[in-house]
Records
---
Amino acid sequence: MKKKAFKGGVLLLIVVFLGLYYAYSNGYYEKRQNDKILLTNEKIEQFEQDIKDGKDISLEDYEEEEEDYSTRTSKFSLNLSSKAEHIVDSAIKFIFKKLGNVVE
């Protein structure tokens, strides 16, 4: 019974890791950054228009407040996948280093 639960837990972690990795590798993060750039460009245009109109300018008028939609679960999953990525990366480097030593 414990063996099945352990295998199920490992399988779940692998699926979560692959899902998060897939979202990251397909540009979700880059799309969010591009959206921020677009909003910034809009604020720059608004700032320039306000200067032309002679309005009072305040930094607070042009700041975008970003909402954090992350949950404890998503933060935990992202942290877990980052650690798993580090472990896999270290293991692959170790293996190739040993293989390189054998070849020499």
---
Amino acid sequence: MVYSSGTNLIKRMRKRKRVRFRTIELKLSPRQKQSLENYCQARHTTPVKLIKKCIRKYTEGFARSVPDEYYVTEKQLALFDETEETIADQSPAEGIKF
């Protein structure tokens, strides 16, 4: 770096923070293992790369906090609320079709 005063200063290099990895074990049946190996061979990839790609959606972006939309709510079957409301809005004669 050259400053206006004409002195050259050496920019200090910061040490990189060491990346720590964690080990996760999972068990596969022999048939599942063979299927995984065959799929990876066909796609020219490795099982580790395939598994990491599949779980990337869940492992990236949630380090600090999880958005509210991913939390489990008390009303798990909220999709039925809409149908109950539409049935309640109809008169008894409208719901019956011959």
---
Amino acid sequence: MTLEERVNWQRIAYIVESYELVGTDGETFDAYLAEMISSHAMPIMELAFAETILDVWTVVPLPRGVLFLEHANNILQDWSEKGFSSRLTPDDFKQITGLDPAPIIHALRSPTPQAPVL
């Protein structure tokens, strides 16, 4: 694993831990998350996680576990099929996640198949 991959993984882990997203799903959550990571660029996943948190913010209790990942995965699939569209500004992303939005912005501007161009 490269340094960049480790940093990206730590950023995902930080969001998961901050919002206690594993819930009671444990190994099932970990397997689903690993599958998502193998299919999507991690910076784009971070943004999908922030979008999911925004979507479910008013739901009590906050959806966690596989239910949370399914919602995030649906967002990623929509972006793949319909084109990228985020409601979050860089400041919104930082407020929700506590993370620097620069890697997300960079990923969105990179002309790769996994990262749509803004």
---
Amino acid sequence: MKKSSLLEDIKKARIKGKISYRFRPKDLKEKCPGFAVSTYYSFLSRHISGKKYKQYFIRHSRGVYSLKDDPVLNERSLLEFLP
């Protein structure tokens, strides 16, 4: 069972340069393994603006997303993930 959240894994992957600013669910599947395939798609699509869930992502085009509060662009949040 996976102990970390997909959102945490995505942020860590951005900080480490494993995924680019704009990413697709298939990128997350490769770089943030450990979740069901459908999770990558549903998690991203649920957490964009206009949905009832908290917004974590911006949808740029069909299947292309970025983090709303990108830790690489917001260096203060980088400190949370550094050892």
